[in-house]
Every structure is written in C-alpha cells, then in structure tokens.
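hiii so um. not sure if this is the right channel but i have a protein structure encoded as tokens and i wanna go backwards to a sequence. like what aa goes where. can anyone help
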C-alpha cells in the first residue's frame, strides 16, 4: 500500500498516539483486553464485567492477600484481594507501612509472624472452597503482575477481604475501592483493640519485650533454662492442615535440674504474643517432661492442652518463650523450618 499527500504523516501520528497510550497505561491495560472471561464470551475488564460475579474454586494460597483459583471450565487465574495488605512472608516487611509498629527488628519479626498467620487463616478458610469473586467499579480489573483485583465472598456470604482487616490480619491498602470507608472503620477498631498484627504496635511486638534484639538471651532447644528448664522438642509442622490437626502441633518442656519445678502461673508464648498460662498446682519433677499440645484434650501430669482455635507455631520459624510467675524469661528457644 502506498501513502500519498497528508495521509502518511497522519497515520504515523496515530500510531505514535496509540503507542504512547499503551506505554502510559502499562502492561495491565494490554492484558485487560486479551484475557477471556471464564464463559469465553468477552474480556474481563470490559464495562459490563465490573458488575459480574463468578463462582470459582480456590486452589492455592500464595500469601494472605493473594490466591490462585480456577473457573468452572478449568481456566486458572491469580487474584489479588482488593483493599487489603497482609504482612509479607516472601520478602522483607517495612514496618513504616503499619501505623505505630516499631521500625526495628522486633517490628519486622512480629509482622512476618502475622504474615504467616494471615496465610494460614486464608488457607484454612479458602483452599478447595467454592467462593464468589467480583470486581470493583472504582478499580481497574488488574493490578501489578497482571493479577485480577477481586473481592472474595465465601459460601455463607462473608466478605473475606473485610474479615482480614476486621480480625487484624491486614491493613487497609489505600485506593478508591468502593468499600474503603467500611474497611477503614474496621481497621480503626482493630488498631484500638490491639487485634492481630496491631499487637505489634506500641512496644507490644515480640511478646511485649519492647523491641529487644538482645541475642544473648537466645537459647537453642537443647539448652537448659535458668531454672533447670529446657525446650526439649518443638513439633510445629503438623501432618496435613495445621489448623485441622492441632494436637500434632506441640512443644515439649523438660526439667533438666535436680529439684521439682512449680510451674503454677508460668506462661508459654510465641513471637506473635499467643500465650498459654499454666494453671496453679502444676509441677514438673526432675528429669520429667511436659508436652503442651495446641489443641484440646484431657490434661494430665505430663500433658497439657492449649485449647487454641488455630495453629500457633509457625512452620518456618518461631520462638518459644517460657516465663515464670513473676514474668521473668526462664528459657527462650528459637527454631527455623
């Protein structure tokens, strides 16, 4: 085809304008027009799809705010949950993104702990479940890395995004999404009550140790404590889903001293501040062990049950902290996955 007169300059200008528009909009805009709807009739991202909803099955949790799912026809997608930001588990956390969380090692560790808890919560609630996903009229259909920006509603109607904020697993990710006022109100309540990750704020990080990073207090699991107590074993990774097999998650304490220990009102806690308080009258004789199971059961002289609602100990690393009735740290045992 030949170009004559003024047609060629005009055509070049049009091409340049189109190219500039694509570059300005970013890669997500290109993907928006090429990603098929699960029914194959149009593209997710067109004007009609904003009000549509789809029933999908969650197949995998990437982290607390990112999920992989599949449509009824088998098409797979990755979704980024709208309006929320859970602490990172695959990269470093920036405590300055979370109001009043100390910008130090204790704040980073506390946030990472809650990042794992958020992932575990999402895994327990969503994996292999059929949920409803929707888009938001105020947001583009895709964000960074081409992930679909979605609300996830569980089978009972619960908006999972909102629950992450309400229960302290996430902060609000500020944008113009339509639910933002409701989400911010839930975040304010969680912050005020110190719920979830907000226990990391105001010096409550790492079990309330005021951001201490003193490595001299760290003990390995085989070391005896100052009162003759040692953490003999930590079994953090239960078989299968940790939240559904709580009694396969446990910590074993051993009296390595020569005298019987009175454990009344002692506490066992993790880095995230989850705490079990030993009832009055519990003792541990020399050379004997006490196993603390996360789940429920009948207590005995050698076994105690936390009765926790969910898994406590992180599979890829955490800290067991034992304090006596006066609050003094008797033994601390760090472990990694």
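sure thing!! here u go:
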């Amino acid at each position: 085809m030949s170009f004559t007169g003024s047609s060629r300059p005009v055509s070049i200008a049009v091409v340049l304008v189109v190219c500039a528009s694509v570059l300005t909009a970013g890669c997500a805009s290109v993907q928006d027009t090429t990603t098929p709807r699960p029914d194959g009739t149009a593209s997710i991202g067109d004007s009609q799809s904003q009000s549509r909803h789809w029933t999908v099955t969650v197949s995998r949790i990437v982290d607390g705010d990112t999920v992989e799912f599949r449509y009824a026809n088998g098409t797979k997608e990755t979704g980024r949950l709208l309006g929320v930001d859970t602490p990172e588990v695959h990269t470093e956390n920036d405590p300055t993104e979370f109001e009043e969380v100390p910008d130090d090692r204790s704040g980073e560790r506390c946030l990472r702990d809650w990042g794992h808890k958020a992932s575990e919560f999402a895994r327990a609630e969503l994996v292999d479940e059929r949920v409803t996903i929707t888009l938001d009229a105020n947001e583009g259909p895709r964000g960074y890395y081409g992930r679909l920006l979605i609300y996830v509603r569980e089978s009972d109607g619960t908006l999972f995004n909102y629950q992450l904020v309400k229960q302290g697993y996430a902060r609000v990710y500020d944008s113009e999404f339509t639910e933002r006022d409701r989400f911010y109100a839930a975040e304010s309540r969680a912050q005020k009550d110190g719920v979830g990750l907000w226990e990391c704020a105001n010096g409550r990080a790492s079990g309330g140790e005021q951001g201490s990073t003193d490595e001299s207090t760290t003990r390995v699991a085989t070391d005896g404590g100052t009162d003759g107590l040692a953490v003999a074993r930590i079994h953090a990774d239960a078989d299968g889903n940790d939240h559904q097999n709580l009694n396969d998650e446990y910590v074993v304490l051993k009296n390595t001293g020569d005298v019987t220990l009175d454990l009344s009102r002692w506490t066992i806690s993790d880095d995230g501040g989850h705490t079990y308080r030993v009832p009055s009258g519990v003792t541990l004789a020399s050379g004997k062990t006490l196993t603390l199971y996360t789940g429920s059961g009948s207590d005995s002289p050698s076994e105690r049950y936390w009765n926790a609602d969910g898994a406590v100990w992180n599979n890829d690393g955490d800290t067991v902290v034992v304090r006596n009735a006066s609050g003094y740290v008797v033994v601390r045992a760090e472990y990694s996955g």
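oh and The radius of gyration is 26 Å.
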